[in-house]
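user: Kindly work through both lines:
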Amino acid sequence: MWLKTFIRPLAGLVRGFFFGGKGYNQVMMKYGLVFPQTEIGNDPAVIKDYAQTAEGLGFNHILAYDHVLGANPERPGGWRGPYTHQSAFHEVFVLFSFMAAVTARIEFTTGILILPQRQTALVAKQAASLDVLSGGRLRLGVGIGWNPVEYTALNQDFHTRGKRSEAQVALLRKLWAEPLVTHEDKWHSIPDAGLKPLPAQRHIPIWFGGQHPNVLRRVAAMGDGWMPNQRIPGDAKGDIDLLSGYIDEAGRTWDEIGLEARVRYGDGKADGWAATMREWQAMGATHISFNTMDCGFDSPARHLAAVGEFAAAVGLKA
């Protein structure tokens, strides 16, 4: 275990040394954008322009957050959270289907879809349909969420969401791979039925978000990648070390598991971004998404200007 924990960051440093600058960016790292969900508004023309601009600048993917319902902070008993009923969230499968229709290459990832508050077979169907219609451009990030109000409104149990998510991921993979599925567990009963069409990829990548030890165990056992919440690379070191141990216990290697970090516009400009990305790369990041939310931008044009600034800084090419 200790050897793998040591080798992973060392390998990142070696790659950074030999593939520094634009060559390293293009060969080793996939750059994406966090869709400014709560700030960009609802105009379809603006959302279309955002997706096409991202693709035109050479970004690999667009990442979108997920909430079905927002809680009212003035509800009986009160409520506190980073998002409320006044925060706009486009439904991710609908959003990405719209974007897929107006683009040709850019990929889409949920960061994350709150899986246990949804019916598993319906998620399988929605993801498969999006994957087919986009030509295999979907990566499904999943998590268990933090908002009990949303779970109650969707008639799901907040307290069993972790274990249920594990059963859901196992079933998703079966439904995407097999034309007919017979499956029975604590939460599901499928009597010889299947999806049509099956997804273009068959194995839609499933990444997990969060940093609880149970989440890290899921990443190691069944995940294709991990989406840490930490903004500062050093804050993730302990979790990466812990995850390395779980990967070893699962009989897997880091070569099978991606790592997606995020860089925020407000955390500095080109020099600051470069320093943060070098730290993430040294820790083994395979994907980095650039976030322009909560930076004081008052128009879609300002978000896109920041996106262009970042694309130029990292040497992206269409």
In short: The longest strand covers residues 258-264. The CA atoms of residues 41 and 176 lie 33 Å apart.
